[in-house]
Write a structure and sequence with these properties.
The strands form 4 sheets. The protein has a 5-stranded parallel sheet. The protein has helices at 3-25, 32-43, 58-68, 84-88, 122-134, 169-172, 186-198, 203-208, 216-227, 233-248, 258-274, 282-293, 301-305, 310-320; strands spanning 48-52, 73-77, 89-94, 99-104, 111-115, 136-139, 142-145, 151-156, 177-181, 252-254, 298-299. The protein is globular. The chain contains 14 helices and 11 strands. Strand 3 and strand 4 (99-104) form a beta hairpin.
């Protein structure tokens, strides 16, 4: 495709994103970085894992983005007794037709919110991660593709331990981004209180005002356009050096996988597109580096005893890695 055509498509993506942001700001307070990452992940065909306290508008954001992008939306509530069939579906015998009929589970949607995924038992977690990774579900030996686009927003509460099954490293690695959500700032909290007091925080009224600015087909078209964003050799080497630094850092026991490198490339393209650029710059990589790498590194026992955390070490790596 001609460079001018790609530039026009990227400009359209950026303009649409700005319109989506303005509409979300009418109801959602704060959470700007989370919304940015969700949009980047959608354009980069990745998934996002959100860790943090409940009541921070995760469900509201997911439902709003689904409505404003014209996508179907389903939600799975994590529970210890949740079975794979509850998520991917099951074949049920229809006595009238005298045949088995497929009853699709909630994974058959465009945007899926998997709430409190760490409450799901390991067997069901594995089935869910497989569907998320392969974008297909196997039911009674039959493989059925999931809708396209397919995007997962998963949440877990790290402050609850009873009845939970933390995701193992290989499962966490399947998420492009991991972000921690926390309580709002004092100003944002006051903004929420004022909106409630004045009656300007009515979900039903806001949801009724949401007019789709995109469609599933338009999203797929944008995904193709973002894939054509350029990443020059110096930036590719910059990505490599950051990932390699996580594998050689003395305080990190297990560094980032190759999936991290892929996520930085694809995520960097998404960031550039939202900023109306057809090329990636180092700042694009820096913007998503912690969200890509934080859940993929495991600290040494000594580092944990010293009170270090992945964010601190990644700050150190980014500060020491030469920027092209």
């Amino acid at each position: 495709m001609e460079p001018d055509a790609t530039a026009r498509e990227i400009a359209e993506i950026s303009q649409t994103y700005q319109a989506i942001n303005r509409k979300l700001a009418e109801f959602v307070v704060g959470n700007g970085h989370l919304i940015d990452l969700i949009m980047v992940a959608m354009l980069a065909e990745g998934h996002i894992l959100i860790e943090g306290v409940p009541g921070t508008a995760k469900t509201t954001i997911a439902k709003s983005i689904a409505a404003i992008t014209g996508c179907s939306f389903n939600r799975i509530q994590g529970a210890i007794d949740l079975q794979p069939a509850d998520m991917i579906g099951v074949r049920i015998y229809n006595q009238e037709k005298r045949e088995f009929v497929l009853s699709k589970g909630p994974v058959f949607t465009n945007i899926l919110l998997a709430d409190e995924i760490n409450r799901v038992n390991p067997k069901s977690q594995s089935a869910f991660i497989e569907a998320m990774s392969e974008r297909q579900a196997t039911i009674d030996g039959n493989t059925i593709p999931l809708p396209s686009p397919f995007f997962v927003i998963a949440t877990q509460n790290p402050f609850e331990f009873e009845g939970t099954f933390p995701l193992i490293e290989a499962q966490r690695d399947r998420f492009m981004f991991n972000i921690s959500s926390s309580y709002m700032s004092a100003d944002d909290e006051l903004d929420i209180i004022r909106r409630v007091s004045s009656g300007h925080l009515d979900w039903e009224q806001y949801a009724a005002s949401l007019i789709p600015l995109l469609s599933p087909d338009a999203i797929l078209h944008h995904v193709a356009a973002v894939s054509r964003v350029r990443v020059e050799e110096p930036v590719l080497q910059y990505i490599r050096n950051i990932v390699l630094a996580t594998r050689t850092h003395p305080d990190i026991q297990l560094g980032a996988s190759t999936r991290a490198s892929i996520a930085l490339v694809r995520g960097g393209k998404g960031v550039a597109a939202l900023q109306n650029r057809t090329y990636v710059i180092p700042d694009d990589i820096k913007k998503i580096a912690k969200a890509v790498l934080g859940h993929r590194v495991i600290l040494t026992r000594e580092a944990e005893v010293e009170g270090l955390n992945p964010e601190t070490l990644l700050d150190d790596i980014l500060a020491k890695t030469e920027v092209p």
